[in-house]
Amino acid sequence: MVSLYPLFRPLLFAADPEVAHALALDALDAAARTGLAQLTAPRLPAAPVTAMGLVFPNRVGLAAGLDKNAAHLRGLATLGFGFLEAGTVTPRPQPGNPRPRMFRLPAAQALVNRLGFNNEGVACFVENVERASFRGILGVNVGKNFDTPNERAADDYVAALRAVHAIASYVTINISSPNTQGLRDLQAEEALDALLARVVAARDELAQRHGRRVPLVVKIAPDLSDDGVRAVAQRLIRHRIDGAIATNTTLARDGVEGLPHASEQGGLSGAPLRGRALATLRTLVAALDGALPVIAAGGILSGDDARERIDAGATLVQLYTGLIYRGPALVAECVRALAAHGGTEADRHG
Q1: C-alpha atoms less than 13 angstroms from C-alpha of 289 in its C-beta half-sphere
Q2: What was the pLDDT predicted at 36?
Q3: Considering 3, 133, 176, 177, which one is annotated as catalytic?
Q4: Considering the domain boundaries, does residue 348 fall inside one?
Q5: If pLDDT is split at 50, 70 and 90, which confidence band does 218 have?
């Protein structure tokens, strides 16, 4: 599957991005069912790292958004990832924003999406995970339904956390997507304090009841000011959050001005996000000062990009848009680059 992607990419890029996305995942699932994906899977070095009390086989993970309903875990597990993060999933099913809502910017190796947490709801998500019998580390990215007001957002996050507790290795609180109106307001100081107090209380109650503590991770936007990042970091520490992800997509259009689809509403991902995501990561790592590990995402399109994030203090990295442009070979490239790179200061944060 890895070596065939360059042959299929022109066909996929000729289709609507959302259609191509579904076709590629269906093909990967078929290859996994027949054993072809396992036969062609890359042989990767063992490079385990411990973070949040979990032992990751390697530092390279799948970012949320590619498999919103956890419907493709079996196929994705053949690509060499050290962990998969599925979602964003909301308590109730919702269709997301009207199509078209995903746009390629090939000249910039970028995507713009305004999907809007389209998903089949948490009950379907859990059924899909149980059916897949996935044995690896699974992060579950949760969000609020679009019609839930922010003052009741914590109800949705707690409901989703309770629903996925038994099947999640860790749970990510997504408060940084730009495609649900008002969601990013939950990153503001008072709103974040109130939200984190609720979800942490639920995490601790679930741990006491079931004898299993599921780490909580918060995913932040790349569009926060440095002071905003530092304010978020203080609250992550105060509320005993287990990890952070830097970053989600950006509303900025630096580096894509004038390109077709650059003016479409939504979050920009891919190569143009690299600098902004890296700067946010560095600010967050400095503000946390080793209190909790950080997962780096946004603009990772090569092994060198992955190494740069580890050098900046990340413990783990995640891929999404890079897979669209580079294909599954990117996973192996990043795993090998980080295995050869060895440990860093980030490992003190595990």
Answers
A1: 4
A2: 87
A3: 177
A4: no
A5: very high
pLDDT greater at residue 122 or residue 347: 122
CATH of the domain at 189: 3.20.20.70
Task: Answer yes or no: is 350 within a domain.
Answer: no
Which helix (H) or strand (E) element contains residue 94? none
Segment (H or E) for 317 = strand 316-319
Q: Which two tokens stand for residue 38?
A: 């396992």
Q: Is 3 part of the annotated catalytic residue set?
A: no
For residue 132, give the nearest of 167, 88, 90 by alpha carbon: 167
pLDDT tens for 71-93 read 999 999 999 999 999 999 999 99
Q: Is residue 169 part of a domain?
A: yes
d(CA 273, CA 254): 8
Q: Which of 200, 128, 198, 211 is nearest to 167 (CA)?
A: 128
Rounded to two decimals, the pTM is 0.95
From the centroid of its chain, how far is CA 226? 22
Is a pLDDT exceeding 80 seen at residue 4?
no
**Calpha distance 114→96 (Å, rounded):** 8
Question: Looking at the 3D structure of the chain, how many domains does it have?
Answer: 1
Residue 137's φ and ψ, nearest 5 degrees, are -80, 125
Q: Which whole number is the average pLDDT over 1-7?
A: 71
Show the domain range for 127.
Answer: 5-343
Task: Please indicate, yes or no, if residue 78 is contained in any of the structural domains.
Answer: yes
100: helix, coil or strand? coil
- Mean pLDDT, rounded, of the chain: 95
Helices (H), 133-260: 153-164, 189-210, 226-238
Strands (E), 179-335: 216-220, 243-246, 267-270, 294-297, 316-319
